[in-house]
Each structure stands twice: as C-alpha cells, then as structure tokens.
Amino acid sequence: MAKNGVKHLAVILRSGHSDERSQGVVKEIEALGCQIDLLSADVAIASDVDKAFQATTVPIAGIVQGAMVLRDRMFSSMHVSDYHGALACKVQGTWNLHNVAEKLGLKLDFFTMLSSISGVVGQKGQANYTAGNAFLDAFASYRHGLG
C-alpha cells in the first residue's frame, strides 16, 4: 500500500511489533514516506478493537482484515480449543472490526478480508481454517448487501 502512495497506515498486531522482522517492515514503510501507527490488540476482543481504532492518529478510511491463526490437525483429533482458536480472529475479529467501524460512524472506502480458496475446496487438517475462510466469504456478501 505504501508503494502505491498511501501516506498513513495503522497496523494492529496481537503479538506486537518489537520483533526484528516487524521492525524491518516498519523501516521499509517509513522509507516510502508513509507514517505508521503500530497498535497492539487482539481483534477477537471488541474492546481491544475499539481502543485501537480510537488510538489512530488519522481517521480510518479502510480496513484490511488479515488476521490468521493456524492450528492444523485432523478434525477427528482436533481439540475444541484448536477449532475455536483458529476461528476467533476471523469470525469474531471480523464482526468486531465491522461493529466498531459502524459504532464510530466510519465512512470506509474499503473493507477487505483476506480469505483463502480453502473456504471453497477445503484443506486436509484445516477444518477450522476452512470454516473461518468460508465465513469471510459469506461476510463479504453480507457487507456488499449493506452497500
């Protein structure tokens, strides 16, 4: 996005931004003349999303939902916590991003969700990930229906 002229980004990461790889990406983005708000939050927690949105230094004009947790295991041996752990960031996280944006009255230019073909064709050992992506596909239709 920064390579295409975006001048400000706000990035939410559950794990933070202090690791070497994240800092390298931040330096690259800033070198392109883009300011970046580094926000630590869990999108699966509505109050975290609300705080993060309110901590941005410029109004939010668009959302890219790219949260993902992989807990690969055959469904027959998958723990309930593995199933829900992978779903939370995609399902609850997407609802939280949507609901907080609505609550704050944000006029979004885009609400993009990064899904996977696995939501259509499935993947061995990824029933949870597949279900999350199928949800994102359906949610895209829901938002489209809202205009």
Note down, in words, how this protein is organized.
This protein is of the alpha/beta class and 147 residues long. It has a domain at 63-146: Rossmann fold (3-Layer(aba) Sandwich). It has six helices and four strands. It has helices spanning 20-31, 46-54, 80-88, 91-103, 118-121, 127-146; strands at 8-13, 35-40, 62-65, 110-113. The strands form two sheets. Strands 1-2 form a two-stranded parallel ribbon. Strand 1, helix 1 and strand 2 (35-40) form a beta-alpha-beta unit. Helix 2 crosses helix 4 and helix 3 (80-88) packs parallel to helix 6 (127-146). The longest helix is centred in the C-terminal third of the chain and has 20 residues, at 127-146. It starts with 7 loop residues before the first strand and ends with a helix. It comes from Lachnellula subtilissima. One of its GO terms (biological process) is secondary metabolite biosynthetic process. GO terms for molecular function: fatty acid synthase activity.
Secondary structure: elements and pairs:
Layout: E1 8-13, H1 20-31, E2 35-40, H2 46-54, E3 62-65, H3 80-88, H4 91-103, E4 110-113, H5 118-121, H6 127-146
Parallel strand pairs: 1-2, 3-4
Helix pairs in contact: 2-4, 3-6
CATH domain class name of the domain at 63-146: Alpha Beta
* Spatial gap, N to C terminus: 24 Å
Placed side by side, the strands forming the largest sheet appear as 1-2
What's the rounded overall pLDDT mean? 88
Structural class: alpha/beta
> How can the largest sheet be summarized?
2 strands, parallel
Rg of Cα set: 16 Å
**Named CATH topology of the domain at 63-146:** Rossmann fold
Identify low-pLDDT runs.
none
The SSE order reads EHEHEHHEHH
Proportion of residues in helical segments: 40-55%
Architecture (CATH level 2) name of the domain at 63-146: 3-Layer(aba) Sandwich
Organism: Lachnellula subtilissima
Domain Ketoreductase: 1-147
InterPro entries: KR_dom (IPR057326), NAD(P)-bd_dom_sf (IPR036291), PKS_KR (IPR013968), PKS_NRPS_Biosynth_Enz (IPR050091)
Protein name: Fumagillin dodecapentaenoate synthase
